Amino acid sequence: MLLRSRRVLCAALALALSLPVAASDLIAPIKLDTADLNPDAPACDDLNAFVNSRWLAQNPVPADRTTWGTFETLAERSLSMQRQIAKTRPRPPRSSRCGQADRRLLRHRHG
């Protein structure tokens, strides 16, 4: 059994190493774009304004939020997709068996 699992592991490893890896599959290096820096803000006095003021101007925090970043954007996108799925979900026929929570959801959604 041990010999067989070693053979399978070696075969899988040999196959994985033989596959070519394209440069596009690798993670691109992070590059500093100087166009994102604010030359009007003095870097020595206020580094945060020098580095972040343009990004903050282009990505304002919504009025109903205290923070706004990648995780909040993903959460909003997820909620939007869930709402869309809930709206497009077909209404089950009355004869189908569904749980009490499903019935409450359907009653709330369809009135």
Structure description:
It is a single chain. The protein has about 110 residues and is an all-alpha fold. It contains four helices and no strands. The chain has helices at about 1-20, 45-60, 70-90, 100-110. The longest helix is centred in the last third of the chain and has 19 residues, at about 70-90. It is flat.
Write the layout of secondary structure elements.
Elements: H1 2-18, H2 47-58, H3 70-88, H4 100-110
Features:
111 residues, mainly alpha, 4 helices, 53% helix
User: Main sheet?
Assistant: none
Question: Which range does the strand content fall in?
Answer: under 5%
Total count of strands: 0
Structural class: mainly alpha
Termini distance? 61 Å
> Number of helix segments?
4
Large-scale geometry? flat
Poorly predicted spans: none
Question: What is the CA-based Rg, rounded?
Answer: 27 Å
Short description:
This protein is mainly α and 111 residues long. The protein has four helices and no strands.
